C-alpha cells in the first residue's frame, strides 16, 4: 500500500509552481480581449479592485484550507472541507475541487496540444507565404480531425495524446521531481518569450513590414481610461470573472498544492508572491503582445471585430499571419516564442489540475504515484476525446461553460462561506497568519468575512439571471429576456436556435440574411449567409444532404435551408452535459466509499 | 500615446512590477526556519534524511 509522500523541493519551486498554475493561456488570450471589450484602460480599475477584494482573500482562503487539510492527510477539498465542518454536505461540495480539475484538464490539454502543434508549424515554416484567410483556414482544418496538415493521419488526436502522455509522465515524477522542475523551466522561459514579444510589439513602426499603425496605437487603445464604463455592471462582472480564471480560483488546485505545506510554514507571503507574479504576467506582459501587434497590422475596427470571437481565434487564426510580416527568420522565432509561451503557460496549469486527482487516488485508495498519474491520464483521455472529436459541435464550449466557469464560481462561493462563517473567522484568521512571514493587514479579516462572500454571491446570482444585452435596466418583477450566456438560458438551451431536435430531416437557418454562396466541396455541402452587418455565417453539412435555397434568396432565422439527415448540435451538447453530471456523481460515490473506509479506520 | 493612457499604463505597471519583485525577493531572501524540526521543503532537509 502506498502512502502520500509527495513533497515540495524548495519554497521558490512551490511559488513558481503555484504561479504556473495561475498563469495560463487566459493571461495572454483572454485578458487583453476582456480589456478591449470592457472599456480599455477603465477595465483595469474594476479588475484591480476585484483582485484586492476577491482575488487576494480567496488566495488566502484556498492556501489556508489546503494547509489545514494537509495536516490531517487530506490533500483534496472533499475531506479538507469535512475537517472544517462535520455537516454531511460539505464533503460533497468539495467534490467540485476534483471534478473541475478533471473536466478542465480534458479540454485544456487539447488547447495545450494546439500550442505544441503550432510551435512545430512555426518552426518548420508551415505558415510561410499564407495570407490571413489561409492561416484561419489552416486552424479550421486542424480542428477537423479528418484533415491532416502535416501528413500525419488524425493529427489533432496525435498531438492531444502526446500532450497527455507528457503531462502524465511529469505528474508521475511527483511534486519536487516533476511539477516543480517543469515550473522552474517553464516559468522563466515563458517570461523571457513574453518580454521578447512585448518589445517587438511595442516598437512596431507604421510603414515597416506592412504595419499600418505603431505598436503604441494598440497600447493607447487598451490603456485609455473610459471612466463611464465604471458604472456598467457588465464591466465589473467581466473583471470579477477574469480574476477567477486568471488565479485558478475555485478549482481545488491551489488547495492541493498548499496541502503539502507544513503547519509552521508560511502561506501568506507565498500566496502574495504567486498571486502578484500572475498579475505581472497578465497585466504587464499579457497586455503588451497580441493587441499592439494585431492593431498594428489590422487596425482597431478589425481587431474589435476579431475579439468578438474570443482570444483563441485571435491567437491561432491571426497571430501566425502577422508574424509572417517580420520575414521568415523572425516569423519562425516569434511563432516559436508565442506558442512556446502559451505551451508553458498551459502545461504548468494542466499539471496543477492533475495533482488533486492524483492526490485523491493516493490518499483515499492508496494508489502508487505512477498508477495515480496514469489514472489521471486515462480519465482525461476518456473525457477529452469528445472535445477533440466533436469540437465544432459545441462539446468543448459546454465543458468550458459548466466546469470552467459555473463550477468555479459556485465552488468559490461555498468555500468563502464555509471558511468565514462555518469554520469561523477566528480559526480562519489564525490559519492565515500562522507561520506567516508577512503581517497580513487586519482589514482582510473583515473583507474575508463580509465583502468576499457577498461579491461571490452577487457574481453567482447575476450569472444566473443576466439580462439580454447586459441591459440591467430591463430587469423587473414581471420578468425580462435573458442573456444567452446566463445559467438559466443555458439550461433552457436558448442559445441553440431553431434546430432544437436531436435528429431531423431538415436543417433550419440559425441567422437571417441573404444566401451568398451555395456549393459542394470535398465531402461537405456549404451555404454561406450574408447578414445585414455584412458578416458571413457559414453552415456546413455532409455531402449527402442538399441545399434547398439558392444564391440570392433571402432567409430568416428558422427557415429550412438543407434537407437530408441531421444530427443537430443540441444532441452533442446534451450528451456532454450528461457525461459531466455522470462524472460528478461518480466522484460523489467515490467520496462516499472513501468516507466509509476512513470512518472504519478512524482517520476522519 | 495620449498622456492619460501613458500615465495610466506606467503607474499600473510600475505598481504591479514593484509588488511582484518585492514579494518575490522577500521569499528569496527569507532564511529557512531553524526552529522547525522538519519543514515543507526537501532542499532544507539534512542530507541523510533526504528521500
Provide a short characterization of the protein structure.
By secondary structure, chain A is of the alpha+beta class. Chain A has helices at 11-22, 25-29, 31-37, 41-71, 77-84, 89-93, 96-124, 132-143, 155-172, 174-202, 215-223, 233-247, 253-258, 268-285, 290-298, 300-307, 311-324, 328-365, 369-389, 395-433, 443-465, 487-491, 569-601, and strands at 503-508, 513-521, 524-530, 536-542, 546-547, 554-555, 560-567.
Question: What's the helix and strand layout?
Answer:
The complex is a heterodimer of chains A (604) and B (51).
Chain A: H1 11-22, H2 25-29, H3 31-37, H4 41-71, H5 77-84, H6 89-93, H7 96-124, H8 132-143, H9 155-172, H10 174-202, H11 215-223, H12 233-247, H13 253-258, H14 268-285, H15 290-298, H16 300-307, H17 311-324, H18 328-365, H19 369-389, H20 395-433, H21 443-465, H22 487-491, E1 503-508, E2 513-521, E3 524-530, E4 536-542, E5 546-547, E6 554-555, E7 560-567, H23 569-601
Antiparallel strand pairs in A: 1-7, 2-3, 2-6, 3-4, 5-7
Helix pairs in contact in A: 1-10, 1-14, 1-18, 4-5, 4-12, 4-14, 4-20, 4-21, 7-9, 7-18, 7-19, 7-20, 7-23, 8-17, 9-10, 9-18, 9-19, 10-18, 11-15, 15-16, 15-17, 17-18, 18-19, 20-21, 20-23
Chain B: H1 3-29
Structure description:
The complex is a heterodimer of chains A (604) and B (51). Chain A has 604 residues and is α+β, with helices and mostly antiparallel strands. Chain A folds into two domains: 392 residues, Orthogonal Bundle (Hydantoin permease), CATH 1.10.4160.10; 65 residues, RNA polymerase II/Efflux pump adaptor protein, barrel-sandwich hybrid domain (OB fold (Dihydrolipoamide Acetyltransferase, E2P)), CATH 2.40.50.100. In chain A, 65% of the residues lie in helices and 7% in strands. Chain A has 23 helices and seven strands. In chain A, helix 1 packs across helix 18, helix 7 crosses helix 19 and helix 9 crosses helix 10. With 51 residues, chain B is mainly alpha-helical. Chain B has one domain. Chain B is built from one helix and no strands. The relative contact order of chain B is 0.08. Chains A and B meet through helix 1, helix 4, helix 11 and helix 14 of A and helix 1 of B.
Amino acid at each position: 500500500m502506498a502512502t502520500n509522500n509527495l513533497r515540495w523541493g524548495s519554497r521558490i519551486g512551490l511559488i513558481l509552481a503555484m504561479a504556473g498554475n495561475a498563469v495560463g493561456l487566459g493571461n495572454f488570450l483572454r485578458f487583453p480581449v476582456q480589456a478591449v471589450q470592457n472599456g480599455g484602460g477603465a477595465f483595469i480599475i474594476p479588475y484591480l479592485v476585484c483582485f484586492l477584494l476577491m482575488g487576494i482573500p480567496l488566495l488566502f482562503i484556498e492556501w489556508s484550507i489546503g494547509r489545514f487539510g494537509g495536516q490531517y492527510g487530506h490533500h483534496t477539498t472533499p475531506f479538507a472541507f469535512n475537517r472544517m465542518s462535520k455537516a454531511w454536505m460539505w464533503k460533497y461540495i468539495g467534490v467540485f475541487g476534483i471534478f473541475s480539475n478533471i473536466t478542465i484538464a480534458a479540454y485544456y490539454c487539447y488547447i495545450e496540444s494546439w500550442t505544441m502543434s503550432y510551435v512545430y508549424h512555426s518552426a518548420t515554416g508551415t505558415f510561410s507565404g499564407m495570407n490571413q484567410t489561409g492561416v484561419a483556414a489552416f486552424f479550421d482544418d486542424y480542428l477537423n480531425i479528418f484533415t491532416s496538415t502535416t501528413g500525419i493521419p488524425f493529427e489533432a488526436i496525435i498531438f492531444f495524446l502526446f500532450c497527455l502522455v507528457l503531462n502524465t509522465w511529469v505528474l508521475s515524477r511527483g511534486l519536487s521531481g516533476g511539477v516543480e522542475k517543469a515550473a522552474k523551466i517553464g516559468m522563466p522561459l515563458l517570461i523571457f518569450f513574453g518580454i521578447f514579444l512585448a518589445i517587438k510589439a511595442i516598437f512596431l513602426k507604421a510603414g515597416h513590414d506592412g504595419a499600418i499603425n505603431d505598436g503604441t496605437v494598440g497600447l493607447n487603445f487598451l490603456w485609455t481610461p473610459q471612466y463611464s464604463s465604471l458604472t456598467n455592471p457588465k464591466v465589473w462582472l467581466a473583471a470579477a470573472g477574469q480574476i477567477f480564471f486568471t488565479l485558478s480560483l475555485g478549482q481545488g488546485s491551489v488547495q492541493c498544492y498548499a496541502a503539502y505545506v507544513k503547519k509552521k510554514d508560511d502561506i501568506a507571503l507565498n500566496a502574495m508572491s504567486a498571486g502578484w507574479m500572475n498579475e505581472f504576467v497578465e497585466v504587464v506582459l499579457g497586455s503588451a503582445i497580441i493587441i499592439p501587434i494585431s492593431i498594428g497590422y489590422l487596425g482597431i475596427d478589425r481587431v474589435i471585430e476579431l475579439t468578438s470571437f474570443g482570444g483563441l481565434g485571435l491567437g491561432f487564426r491571426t497571430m501566425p499571419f502577422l508574424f509572417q510580416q517580420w520575414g521568415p527568420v523572425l516569423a519562425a522565432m516569434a511563432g516559436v516564442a508565442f506558442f512556446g509561451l502559451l505551451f508553458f503557460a498551459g502545461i504548468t496549469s494542466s499539471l496543477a489540475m492533475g495533482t488533486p486527482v492524483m492526490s485523491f487516488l493516493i490518499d483515499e485508495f492508496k494508489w502508487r504515484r505512477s498508477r495515480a498519474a496514469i489514472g489521471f491520464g486515462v480519465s482525461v483521455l476518456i473525457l477529452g476525446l469528445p472535445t477533440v472529436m466533436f469540437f465544432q459541435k459545441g462539446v468543448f464550449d459546454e465543458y468550458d461553460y459548466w466546469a470552467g466557469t459555473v463550477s468555479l464560481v459556485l465552488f468559490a462561493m461555498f468555500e468563502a462561506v464555509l471558511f468565514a462563517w462555518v469554520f469561523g473567522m477566528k480559526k480562519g484568521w489564525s490559519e492565515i497568519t500562522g507561520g506567516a512571514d508577512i503581517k497580513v493587514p487586519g482589514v482582510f479579516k473583515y473583507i474575508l468575512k463580509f465583502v468576499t462572500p457577498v461579491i461571490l454571491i452577487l457574481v453567482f446570482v447575476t450569472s444566473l439571471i443576466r439580462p439580454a444585452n447586459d441591459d440591467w435596466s430591463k430587469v423587473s418583477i414581471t420578468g425580462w429576456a435573458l442573456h444567452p450566456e446566463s445559467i438559466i438560458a443555458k439550461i433552457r438551451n436558448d442559445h441553440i436556435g431553431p434546430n432544437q431536435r436531436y435528429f431531423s430531416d431538415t436543417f433550419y437557418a440559425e441567422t437571417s440574411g441573404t444566401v451568398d454562396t451555395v456549393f459542394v466541396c470535398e465531402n461537405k455541402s456549404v451555404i454561406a449567409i450574408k447578414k445585414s452587418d455584412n458578416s458571413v455565417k457559414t453552415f456546413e453539412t455532409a455531402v449527402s444532404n442538399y441545399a434547398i435555397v439558392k444564391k440570392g434568396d433571402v432567409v430568416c432565422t428558422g427557415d429550412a435551408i438543407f434537407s437530408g439527415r441531421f444530427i443537430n448540435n443540441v444532441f452533442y451538447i446534451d450528451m456532454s452535459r450528461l457525461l459531466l453530471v455522470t462524472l460528478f456523481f461518480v466522484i460523489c460515490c467515490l467520496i462516499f466509499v472513501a468516507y466509509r473506509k476512513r470512518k472504519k479506520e478512524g482517520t476522519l | 500615446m495620449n498622456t492619460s493612457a501613458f500615465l495610466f499604463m506606467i503607474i499600473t505597471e510600475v505598481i504591479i512590477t514593484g509588488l511582484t519583485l518585492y514579494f518575490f525577493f522577500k521569499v528569496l531572501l527569507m532564511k529557512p526556519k531553524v526552529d522547525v524540526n522538519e519543514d515543507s521543503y526537501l532542499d532544507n532537509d539534512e542530507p541523510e534524511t533526504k528521500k
